[in-house]
Amino acid sequence: MEYYVGELSRPYLRTLSLMPENQETPIHFLKTWITPEKYFYRRNHFSYPMLSPHAFFLPITGEVKQTLIFPYCYLKSLSSKSVTMVLECSGNKRSRFSPRVYGEQWEDGAISQGVWKGVALRDLLNMSGLNSAAVEVVFEGYDYGKRTDMEGIFHYARSLPMEKAMHQDTIIAYELNGKSIPYAQGGPFRLIIPQWYAMASVKWLKQITVIDHNFDGPFQTVDYIYYPHKEDDIGKKPVTNIKTDSIIQQPLSYTTLDTGVHNINGIAWTGYGTITDVELSFDEGTTWKRAKLRKDTNQQYAWTFWEYQWNVEEEGEYTIMCRAKDSTGGVQPLEAEWNRKGYGYNAVYTIKVKVE
């Protein structure tokens, strides 16, 4: 990790690519509940879109009783709600899979947390009125470009089943951390989906279309699918909810420490449910010790900070493992569920340190 050395040292985003721009949050160095916008990770499939004044008008069409177009100012005048939540790329930690898989080689930083403010999607859908034939809701962004695996130009577009579209905390957001959503984070309108990986939270919303069938766009049926086998599609299933996961923020792996007491700390998060325990092991998983949790019980979608005071008296090399558990019974496994596109890595987090 590089630093700027001045009056206050500060971390920078870790760059994976610039065209399109993909950058990681310096997650090991942030201790705040809310990730400052300048440290929010960035995940793009295409170059940033050129937005016109039309981007400040959001239409809802398709299987609705009346097509409506919501101007930005009108949307902001409606009853709003704020949701504090983890936003995690489904490819976070992809570089940890073994065997290795192709794709952006994210380490631990394709994750951030913010306060998103907007209007409940179900309120807008109810204003338009849903036809009885409505099956899914499609969200199309202004970003578009070519894919390497098929001919043509594609907008980034995804759909939600009606149940998730009508979830009370699924919102059309227009603010992040108390300010208008930055262009780089998908403003002026961005879909925000709690509990699911961030591929569902479509940026730069262009239009919303209610359809009477299952959407088959490539970012729905080709990408963001768990393919458990390298050579065939048997057993494939869609990527949806965030898996129970955690990281050790400090110390970093392969750090040299002295004997004495050290504060081991990190974060844990999950999709459905809430984090109930974080445990650490110093003997390759034979025994586990509970960490102290620090969380906001009023924010069900937020991450949990944890810490453990480790008193180490003997010199040597140590492996430190941590795992999170949630209220639905979710627990980090010793090995991640391998899939050929590298989604949903959540194996027990492991670092090595040397004490001398």
UniProtKB/TrEMBL annotation:
<feature type="domain" description="Moybdenum cofactor oxidoreductase dimerisation">
    <location>
        <begin position="239"/>
        <end position="355"/>
    </location>
</feature>
<feature type="domain" description="Oxidoreductase molybdopterin-binding">
    <location>
        <begin position="45"/>
        <end position="218"/>
    </location>
</feature>
<keyword id="KW-0500">Molybdenum</keyword>
<dbReference type="InterPro" id="IPR005066">
    <property type="entry name" value="MoCF_OxRdtse_dimer"/>
</dbReference>
<dbReference type="InterPro" id="IPR036374">
    <property type="entry name" value="OxRdtase_Mopterin-bd_sf"/>
</dbReference>
<dbReference type="GO" id="GO:0043546">
    <property type="term" value="F:molybdopterin cofactor binding"/>
</dbReference>
<dbReference type="InterPro" id="IPR014756">
    <property type="entry name" value="Ig_E-set"/>
</dbReference>
<dbReference type="Pfam" id="PF03404">
    <property type="entry name" value="Mo-co_dimer"/>
</dbReference>
<protein>
    <submittedName>
        <fullName>DMSO/TMAO reductase YedYZ molybdopterin-dependent catalytic subunit</fullName>
    </submittedName>
</protein>
<keyword id="KW-0479">Metal-binding</keyword>
<dbReference type="GO" id="GO:0020037">
    <property type="term" value="F:heme binding"/>
</dbReference>
<dbReference type="GO" id="GO:0030151">
    <property type="term" value="F:molybdenum ion binding"/>
</dbReference>
<keyword id="KW-0560">Oxidoreductase</keyword>
<dbReference type="GO" id="GO:0008482">
    <property type="term" value="F:sulfite oxidase activity"/>
</dbReference>
<dbReference type="InterPro" id="IPR008335">
    <property type="entry name" value="Mopterin_OxRdtase_euk"/>
</dbReference>
<dbReference type="InterPro" id="IPR000572">
    <property type="entry name" value="OxRdtase_Mopterin-bd_dom"/>
</dbReference>
<dbReference type="Pfam" id="PF00174">
    <property type="entry name" value="Oxidored_molyb"/>
</dbReference>
<dbReference type="GO" id="GO:0006790">
    <property type="term" value="P:sulfur compound metabolic process"/>
</dbReference>
